[in-house]
Amino acid sequence: MARARPYQFGCGGETGSGKGGPAQATDVTPRVERTDPEGIDYGWVMQVTFVTTIVAGAPLVAVLSLFVSLPSWAARLSFAVRVGAVVWLCTAIGVYVYARWRQLPDGDGSESA
How far apart, in Å, do the first and last CA atoms of the chain sit? Predict the structure, then answer.
């Protein structure tokens, strides 16, 4: 009976030198790259905006929906999108301003004369 070989990464399931010898273990861990952006780190701004909008926006939309008549699913969807867009825009502007404030020369938000 033939032994089943475990799935191996590579072209056609080949690893190593391809001479039919024992399979050689290879490191398939993706490499993590780091950056040191000059100025505002827009990746950080987008991530914080996304998380903050969900964490603060979902409860806000739920609370605000208590004061509005929403008889159908279409009305609920429209309300959530309209309020969510305003929450997202305000959050994005706030996070951008904070990131810009942190980039001032002293790094603590105070301007030097």
Answer: 83
Which structure tokens are listed for 72? 């159908």
pLDDT digits (tens, 9 = 90+) for 35-59: 777 788 888 999 999 999 999 999 9
Residue 7 carries which DSSP code? P
103/113 Cα distance (integer angstroms): 16
Residue 26 lies in a domain: no
Place of tokens 């990131």: 99
Question: Residue 56 domain-assigned?
Answer: yes
Question: What is the C-alpha separation between 11 and 105, in angstroms, rounded?
Answer: 52
Alpha helices in 6-72 (DSSP H): 42-65
pTM of the entire structure? 0.59
Residue 23 lies in a domain: no
How far, in whole angstroms, is CA 21 from its chain's centroid? 43
Going from the C-alpha of 38 to that of each of 35, 41, 107, the distances in angstroms are 9, 8, 14
Identify the domain containing residue 67 by its residue range: 42-102
